[in-house]
Amino acid sequence: MRLRLEQVSVWLDDHQALRAVDVTVPSGAFVSLVGPNGSGKSTLIRAAYRALRPRTGSVLVGEADVWSLSARESARRSAVVHQHEAEPAELTVEDIVAMGRTPHKSLFAPDRPADRAICAAALARVGLSDRRERTLGTLSGGERQRVLIARALAQQSPLLLLDEPTNRLDIRHQFELLALVRSLRLTTLAAVHDLNLAAQFSDYVYLLRAGAVVAAGPPAEALTPARIREVFGVDAHVTTHPVTGRPYLLLSPLSPD
Amino acid sequence: MLMAGSGCAAGHAEPETGATAVPGFPVVIENCGRTLTFDAPPERVVTGYQPVLETLLALGVDDRIIGRVNFSENGPDGFLPGQRERYEQLPEISDSILFPDREVMLALDADLVVTEGWYNFSESRGQVTIEELAEAGTQVYITGGWCDPESQRRFQIEDTLQDVIELGRIFGVPEQAEAVVDEMRQILDEVTAAVADRTPVPVLATDGGAGPVRVYGGAGLTHAMIEAAGGVNVLAAVEDDLFQANVEVVAATEPRAMIVTDYQPGPTAAEKFTEVAAIIPDSAAAREGTYLALPAVSQHPGYRNILAVREIAQFLHPEAFAG
Amino acid sequence: MTTARPARSTVATTPVAPPTSEQVGGGPRWRARYLGVLAGGTLLLVAATVGSVTIGSVPVPPTEVLSVAAHQVLPWLPADSGDPVVHRIVWQYRMPRALLAVLVGAGLALVGAVLQAVVRNPLADPFLLGASSGASFGAVAAIVSGVTVGGMVGLSGAAFLGALAALVLVYVMAGGRGRLTPGRLVLAGVALSYLFQAGYSFLLQRADAARLAQSALFWLLGSLAGARWYNLLLPAAGLAAGMVLLLAQWRSLNAVMAGTDTATALGVPVHRFRAQMFVLTSLLTGVMVAVTGAIAFVGLIVPHAARMLVGADHRRLLPASALLGAGFLQTVDIAARLLDSPRELPLSVVTAVCGVPFFLWLLRRRTTAQVVG
């Protein structure tokens, strides 16, 4: 299922956070949004799942405008993985993953064996089946983030949105998480803080600055030294990583000239 | 006639006869644990709730009253015969049955405040306290011995008579007081004689309510009146005056008559009777609709509550008073 | 030499302590615990209800209670031989009262649990959003004005109107449908509560209300003493319906508890849901408060106790809260009738005295993190 944002502008109070951005995520692709703080990455993600309403432009999930759908129908199409800090720490892993079934259940519908099977499969996919009864607060950051991915999987949505999921994770967990997401082969749009992680795992990258798209394309094309200097104010030297074979950016402070 | 000088302060000379000395004075009275001393009859008097005013009217000392409270509670017909005109001539200082604000009371600069209730000096309501009045040189006389809730429960009818005697001394009209007391004793003796051989009537005294029910127990003025009037209080076992009773307790009683407190604003006595009668539908009181609407003023110490004893007796034993 | 421990941040990124055996529950263990709480709660409720109808100023053995109920409900039975006064006491007063205790206890606890999730505030209770103060104002105004149209039914009507007025005012003050954030709801509710409280305090302070103030005060502190069949059946139906509707919301409540964004992502129309919950809980609170006055403490503490026992998932929390709330209020009501017999004690007094020690005991057995979350 394809995600498209066409000419989307979003205002937060009096400040324009997104300026007529166009973003396309082809079906099955992993697309990253990168940019400094305040560039609009999170805002864009939130506009994509209806947490924010664009003042102009449209958000199309599978060719349907999300705002023409009901909230539940929209949630059946797109699942979101936020940072884990906001989740209630006293819920069990099981309960949190079960929340993913919410868009599929009407008011008085109980959990059926089919739902439980879906949740169990989701947990198995992220490798946390043995942690089912633990409360969230007792897990490591990486594990918690994986629980949220399991929840998104239980939601069975073709589109996955991630809002800076690797922040505050140990480096190993960062790699594991994004590798897991890639392996899911869902249409994925992720706001990513670390340029090299974006470069390593993404099919396409959108570079944002001050609410506008500055560059777009495969990582090697979008993340040029000139662009990096313009957007981040640092010098970049692009290499190819000897092990992964992906573009790798060596960053240094701006030289005086 | 000079009182025995036991209360004279040490060092005072004997009061001289003549223009400056008043016979019978100084008067020393103990009231609610306070010692009240009068060298002369008070000339600026403030009265509380209606029964107090009625007592002073009976003693003929109403010309000294500089302020009285409002009597709207008893409605436009709630006065004893002939008293309404006098009432309207007296200055009104409060728009309710309670005393007004502290400042109003202090500004009146009274010698004596006479009232029936310890609760009329509530600081939290903005009223003046007895101590503050004392500092301003105003003395306070509380009738019926209603110094606090506990002593209110210990009230006896004799206390009302005692008040009249003491007020007579304070105002320098002992003979008039004797006359009033005699009249009261005559009423009480008449009642006692009339009900002497009659079976006491079980009575429930109530102020309405359906859950809980406000009722009068076996202590305090209402209970004393019932017993004196040839009735027996069905809730005599509870040692309390007015209290909020569990509806079951009331449902288990079987009165033959009910006494319902009557005042405004609020439900009428008839409405309150109907409400409580629904709890005891099998009782004679409910089946026959036997109830007496007793004005609230009668349930406070004063001239009126002696009259009320007769009124209750006439209600409970009408055949004893016929003819 | 001791190593410095890092200050515990409010946002945990790594586990701060190894999980205790209590925290690492087996799925079976959580379920067993839940069933245990349900069983215990039911036992408490049944025992308390039996106690409520048998204990009183007139003790009545349970068999006689059953006989009374049977004779009332099955009119073709031969006339029973018991004391009619006792039977009237049991049928007209104790049974409606026991039923009301179950309904109101469950309702208050349920509303408290729902509101704690909707406004994401552990101090939320049924009275936070103004319904109770509005109802109190309506009731006091009716009492003090001496207007007695319809007796107790009229009083309940005035109280309910007050609750409705509060509902509308808070809704408008908080900004209407699209803007009911938890913060705005709480602020509007608290502000309006203060306003209504000032209103009825003023009415009570006026000295010409001196006699009526006593009844009003009793109402303000809550009591089940006014329970009768005729004034009970309509609120009971409303409560039952409302509770079923609330119990069904457990998924959305779980989602909303995790935050507005998460709830939106899970397909919950958050603003509309909050508005619906606000209206539903305010109506339910209004219906309860109209009959019993404002019974404090139940809606605040019972959800917390339930949360400590069965966890935060609303699928378990809501039924557990309702059950424990019913049993708690039933027990407390027995105390309110017996402690100062033959006098009635207002319920808010007794709920606090009974509830706080129990809650403190429960608190000591759990860590704070598990309470506030």
User: Which stretches of chain A are poorly predicted, pLDDT < 50 over at least 5 residues?
Assistant: none
Strand residue percentage of chain A? 25-35%
State mean pLDDT of chain A (0 to 100 scale).
89
Helix content of chain B: 25-40%
> How large, in whole angstroms, is the Cα Rg of chain B?
21 Å
Largest sheet of chain A: 6 strands, mixed
Kindly state the number of beta strands of chain B.
Answer: 12
Strand content of chain B: 15-25%
If strands are numbered along the chain, what order do they take across the biggest sheet of chain A? Answer: 6-7-8-3-9-10
Key terms:
heterotrimer, A: 257 residues, alpha/beta, four-stranded antiparallel β-sheet, 9 helices, 12 strands, 32% helix, 29% strand, B: 323 residues, four-stranded parallel β-sheet, 36% helix, globular, disordered N terminus
Tell me about this structure.
The complex is a heterotrimer of chains A (257), B (323) and C (373). Chain A is an alpha/beta fold and 257 residues long. Chain A is built from 9 helices and 12 strands. In chain A, helix 3 packs parallel to helix 5, helix 4 crosses helix 5 and helix 5 runs parallel beside helix 6. The model of chain A has no long low-confidence stretch (mean pLDDT 89). The radius of gyration of chain B is 21 Å and the shape is globular. With 373 residues, chain C is mainly α. In chain C, 70% of the residues lie in helices and 0% in strands. The N terminus and C terminus of chain C are likely disordered. Classes of the chains: A alpha/beta (257), B alpha/beta (323), C mainly alpha (373). At the A-C interface, helix 2, strand 6 and helix 3 of A face helix 1, helix 9 and helix 10 of C.
